[in-house]
Design a protein that fits this description.
Layout (H helix, E strand, L loop, with lengths): L26 E5 L16 H12 L4 E3 L28 H6 L21 H22 L2 H13 L1 H16 L10 H4 L3 H10 L1 H27 L3 E6 L8 H5 L15 E5 L9 E6 L3 H6 L3 H11 L4 E4 L7 E6 L9 E4 L2 H12 L4 E3 L7 H9 L4 E4 L21 E4 L8 H7 L2 H11 L7 H11 L4 E5 H5 L28 H13 L8
Parallel strand pairs: 1-2, 1-12, 2-3, 3-6, 6-9, 10-11, 11-12
Antiparallel strand pairs: 4-5, 4-7, 7-8
């Protein structure tokens, strides 16, 4: 029998983002990807544990939950290299929530493996969760109510712009033993209409399954976002500037990207020149954009991408914002990013078009790296707040822009980001010069630890927004680092355990949040 739980489907079409400007507020929040939440099934999910984390945010006076990209990950499990720029990651779906709607049962969970408590074993999680999600789909197709089926059909119709191509792409990848699309049969790689029609018919059930996964992700995320907003919490999402070459986006719309006409591989690859993170730069391997074609289409694909993400979040952090002014292009065949060149982009025209379509843009700019006056002018033209990272503040002189006394109000300060070491790990590795500068600046470290000193600096700054990775709230070392840039594997795995968020920690964070004027007045 289907359980009698009321179906909350009005939100599947997704709620509108909360109207909110970071230019005239003083708030704080925590950076935590949903994969890092506690869960009995080896990976964080968008179920009850996510709600408990939202409760922690609300209790401590935070008003922002910042997440990383939410898409379905491929090789290396990086949320910045997804199979789609618009789909959600099925591994984040809560099995318990599906059970509560009657399409799985407690007995289905018997015999679950012992997953690591502090890391995500992606292969083991996928091996366990995907068969259960398929069982849920089979039950849905047999027993879903008319109301539920109508909601599913409406979702598929409303999201057809990206969902049809994505579902077919993922079904074909299953059939093609997960090979990248440019290695498929030529008629599929080049999207010959007759071949696509044949495989749409042959893979109809798998295509429907992929659509169901996106429907279920949207339902659960919509409920979670509504809960967060009801607690006064805004969700800040993340939009990577580039998409993976092996993605539905590049396969379905190759004209938007710089591809080799013969091999369909990237003709020019994205990355950044040598910087703080790497002496050889970062070679990401994504294809760069064909900005000329994008502008001819009035940036339709980009605009749809923003609309889709704003169904899920209230604010958007644009990753690698400087690439909208000029981007680092590396010729095919290079193994490092050293031999690249800067190429002008069409950022101003794009953001003008986006603003005409969508009004005021709820955007913050990740303006780290090689930042020129032109990049700053583009950011400031649209009043996007930029980013400040305290880990970068103590290696030079008082003119360092990351020192708090050099901030403007319209910015977002972090202790560190997902690409940095944790604050405790960072401090342990500091050279004597930087460590001396830091200690002179803060006047020494009390018994609470260096992580609380840096949290205090961030919250006390004049920046409108202060965001702290949860690892720094917890005081964890390098073992809890989320990502090592330029390292292909072993990242994105960290998780915290349910008992890690203590009352003492909550009290300390709440006190500092109130002390520095970031606590919401209505609580």
């Amino acid at each position: 029998m289907l359980k009698s739980k009321a179906i909350s489907l009005d939100g599947v079409a997704m709620s509108q983002p909360v109207k909110f400007s970071l230019a005239n507020c003083r708030v704080s929040g925590i950076l935590l990807h949903p994969t890092s939440l506690p869960s009995r099934f080896g990976i964080g999910s968008i179920g009850n544990r996510a709600r408990r984390f939202i409760d922690f945010l609300a209790d401590t006076g935070q008003q922002i939950w910042q997440v990383l990209p939410l898409g379905p990950t491929g090789f290396g499990n990086s949320p910045y290299m997804c199979y789609s720029a618009m789909a959600g990651n099925p591994l984040l779906i809560s099995l318990e929530s599906i059970r509560d709607y009657g399409f799985l049962y407690d007995g289905d969970f018997q015999g679950a493996p012992e997953f690591p408590a502090d890391r995500v074993d992606y292969a083991a999680v996928e091996a366990y969760k995907m068969p259960l999600l398929r069982r849920a789909f089979d039950n849905f197709m047999r027993r879903a109510s008319g109301e539920y089926r109508e909601a599913f059909a409406t979702f598929c119709y409303q999201k057809a712009y990206w969902l049809d191509d994505y579902a077919l792409f993922m079904a074909l990848k299953q059939h093609q033993d997960n090979k990248p699309w440019h290695q498929w049969e030529p008629e599929l790689a080049s999207r010959q209409p007759a071949a696509l029609e044949q495989w749409r018919s042959q893979l109809a059930e798998e295509i429907q399954f992929q659509k169901y996964l996106q429907f279920e992700f949207a339902r659960q995320w919509s409920e979670l976002k509504q809960y967060a907003n009801s607690q006064g919490i805004l969700i800040v999402g993340d939009i990577p500037i580039y998409v993976a070459h092996d993605s539905a986006d590049v396969w379905a719309r190759p004209e938007n990207f710089s591809l080799d006409a013969r091999t369909q591989e990237p003709a020019m690859m994205a990355g950044v020149p040598p910087d703080y993170f790497s002496t050889t730069g970062q070679l990401w391997g994504n294809p760069i954009y064909n900005w000329g074609n994008l502008q001819k289409t009035h940036f339709k694909w980009w605009i749809e991408r923003f609309r889709t993400l704003l169904d899920y979040v209230d604010y958007i952090r644009i990753d690698h914002f400087r690439g909208f002014e000029a981007f680092w292009a590396v010729p095919r065949g290079q193994t490092t990013a050293i031999k690249g060149r800067w190429v002008k982009a069409r950022g101003r025209a794009f953001f003008e078009t986006l603003r005409q379509e969508m009004g005021d843009l709820p955007v913050m700019a990740e303006d780290l790296g090689v930042i020129t006056p032109e990049v700053e002018a583009l950011r400031d033209r649209f009043d996007f707040p930029g980013m400040k990272v305290l880990h970068f503040a103590f290696g030079s002189d008082p003119a360092n822009p990351f020192l708090p006394f050099n901030y403007v109000r319209n910015c977002v300060v972090y202790t560190g980001t997902h690409d940095n070491d944790t604050t405790v790990g960072w401090f342990e590795k500091l050279n004597d010069y930087e460590k001396g500068n830091l200690l002179n600046y803060i006047g020494g470290i009390d018994e609470a630890g260096i992580h609380w000193e840096m949290i205090r600096l961030a919250l006390a700054s004049i920046a409108n927004v202060a965001i702290v990775p949860l690892q720094d709230i917890l005081g964890y070392g390098s073992e809890a680092r989320m990502n090592y840039p330029s390292v292909a594997e072993g990242n994105w795995e960290w998780r915290y355990q349910a008992d890690a968020l203590t009352g003492e920690m909550s009290d300390r964070l709440r006190t500092l949040t109130k002390l520095f004027g970031r606590f919401p007045l209505h609580r």
